Each structure stands twice: as structure tokens, then as C-alpha cells.
Hints:
Distance between the termini: 20 Å
Largest sheet: 4 strands, antiparallel
Order of helices and strands: HEEEEEEEHHHEHHEEHH
Number of strands: 10
Shape: globular
Helix content: 40-55%
Amino acid sequence: MPSSDLDLLGPVSETVALDPEAVISRAGDPIAHVFFPHSGAISLMIDMADGQTVATAAVGREGAVGILSVLGPSLSAVTAVVRAAGSASRIPASRFHAAFNRSPAIRHMVQNHARGMLVQFQIGSACNALHPVEARMARWLLQFRDRIDQDVLPLTQQALSQILGVRRTTVTLLMGKLRASGAIRSDQRGRIEIDRSRLAAAACECHGTMRLEVEEICSVNTARSRPAVPSAAVRIPEIESGDIV
């Protein structure tokens, strides 16, 4: 974004730590802050009345949590839980709403973010309904790997059971299958080392589809943000793997 637009956010932004398993927003509570992760990974969770949970999306440095507060004071529809430690810029929702109203660039950013999240919600819903749980777990592990950009994931089996909406014993069984196939090299307490290529083979097509959809959004946005150049020199730059969902 232009520096003048960033200046609307800088004075009201503070850097905060994202501690493992910290809840940064809870379903039903007013959205008080917007979080822009610099590192780490967050899962957006749906909490059912009987205590069961399931994840609807993952957020890392490519996105934000609480950004729909730009629509006005509202309650959070999801619970946001830190799954991999990191840091984030935190901005009061009211101040972000004011900057959103003043800046076309910020409005465009929010629109792009909403498109990316909608891709996750739509494909994730279909995946949960149609694909086996082993493929879905492989897909989630890859989504977290995309965000923290390393092959050792700081995830417990309890966290995976909450994300997938299955019993802990089911996760233990699935981990054994993935380990036998070589998709997971080791599964120590709170640390899962993966083989990315073999894990991709075990996952359903949804992870790749999500990546391609977001690559397209990023490519179009990058092209639009560049100054006009002669048509012969127009080129959409490559998207680095660490910069996409």
C-alpha cells in the first residue's frame, strides 16, 4: 500500500506476541482488535453447543483476524486460536474501521482478504463433507506448513483433534498411517516432522486448489499495484511459496 495509507495504521498499531494455544478472539465476544500476523499460524474455529469444535480456516502472515469488523461493531462468529507461536500487529477495531473508511487502498486490501478467506471456507466445506479424514488431516498439515514455512510443525494431537472435529484416538490412528507411508518422519510430543511431497500425495486436491486460487488473487493484485508500463514489458511476477496460502 502507499505509505500515506500505511501511516493511517502505524500510530495505532502495537506488536504483540502470539503464544501457543492462546485465544485471541472468542465466538460471541465483540471484535475488539484486528490482528495482522507477522509469523506463526492461527486456526479459526467453530464451537458447537455440545463442546465439539472444527476448524474453518487457517491464517498466517498472508491474512488477518477480525478484519470483518470494518462492517461495523459486531460479535466474532469464530474462535481464533494460535497454533504456531509468532507475533502480530494489533490494531483497535474502531481505529481500523476509521482507516478503512478513509483509504481506498485499505478497502481494496480488505476485499482481497475476504476473497481469499471465502476460497478457504467454500473449498473447506466441500472437503469436510466429501473427503476422508486422513486426506483432510494431510491437507491441514500442509496449510500450517505453508504459513510457518518449515517442515517441523508445533502441533499436538489434541490440537489436530480440535481442528478436524474428531476424537484424539482417531488422530493417533491417522498419524500412524501417515508415518507408515513416510508422509510424517516423526511425531514427538507437540512436534510433527513432515515430508512435504509425500504428505501432498496423501492429501486431497483441496490444498492445491486453495493455493492456485490464492495465487491467482495475488497475481492479479500485484499486477494492479504496479505502475503502468509499455505492454511489451508487462509481466506478472512469480509468487514466492512462502507468501501464499
